[in-house]
Amino acid sequence: MTSNGDEIEEEEISRIEKGQAKNCHGGIETVICTSPSIVCLTQKLIAEMIGTYFVIFSGCGVVVVNVLYGGTVTFPGVCVTWGLIVMVMIYATGHISGAHFNPAVTLTFAIFRRFPWYQVPLYVGAQLAGSLLASLTLRLMFKVTPEAYFGTTPTDSAARALVAEIIISFLLMFVISGVSTDSRAVPSYIGAQLAGSLLASLTLRLMFKVTPEAFFGTTPADSAARALVSEIIISFLLMFVISGVATDSRAIGELAGIAVGMTIILNVFVAGPISGASMNPARSLGPAIVMGVYKGIWVYIVGPIIGIVAGGFVYNFIRFTDKPLGELTKSSSFLRKASANNNASSSNS
């Protein structure tokens, strides 16, 4: 038999999926979203685009500044900047859009049925738009030289870069999988993510006089193969983490931003010199389009997707060995907290 708590939880899940979730504040039950679903989705897409924009603007911007100003930021500084901006934007927009900021992450969530497929193109579009705008902003702000290119290109061979990207992307998604909140509370956003990436790239281009040397996109340092491997690996790590923190009800959701941010810092330190540590198609496409540099661009589309999907799969595989799939996927820490708040309110009334 199902308990009253389970029934309330199932009802809350249904409301969230329909965009009619309720929450309690001060003992009064208030509707989180009373406007049509299209309005709510629009807000999520805007949040995703803005988040992606600032991730690209700050992350790529520090790359340009470091090159144009004699390495004043230093490589460790660049790594920390990437991790911090992602962490900040997760806490700023995570409760609105889910803070994907990455087409590969959105795609992986959809593959594992934690994100509506029909929203995937919208999220990707928003992410690419944010990336392009940020890249354009950087190009306008800086005189970007070839040496200061802020995109991602393999340092030597594409194979090495590909391996690196797969590994770090795997780690990233593994972390995300372990610490993030239930993706069902956040619709899909590939379009919004791309929009955010484009906007961030545009902002950077407008703010800086970006020279070719200060290009803030991603291109293989040597061969596309190395860059592809690198992207697959780091993307796998990224999605593994995302899966753990975003979809596992046993994880501590409040630490999601820290876990994902630290993972990105680690990945940039390790794979940065090889592939640029993209882990995100939007991060590489925005600068590439704005600056017209497409060297090894396929590495940064294929690598992160392979690594992130693999990372999400592995985390879900090891998680499902503990409990039945149906039991694990029916709720998350976020939904349980919402139900607990509603139960407490009902008891006090």
Automatic annotation (TrEMBL):
Which Pfam families does this chain map to?
A: MIP (PF00230)
Keywords, sorted A to Z: Membrane, Transmembrane, Transmembrane helix, Transport
Annotated membrane-spanning segments are: 50-69, 75-94, 115-138, 158-177, 189-208, 228-246, 258-277, 297-318
Q: Which InterPro entries match?
A: Aquaporin-like, Aquaporin_transptr, MIP, MIP_CS
Record-level Gene Ontology MF annotations? channel activity
Supply one GO CC term from the record. Answer: membrane
Question: What is the superkingdom listed in this entry's lineage?
Answer: Eukaryota
Keyword Membrane among record annotations: yes
* Compartments, record wording: Membrane
What is the protein's membrane topology class? Multi-pass membrane protein
Q: What is the similarity comment for this entry?
A: Belongs to the MIP/aquaporin (TC 1.A.8) family.
Protein known as: (rape) hypothetical protein
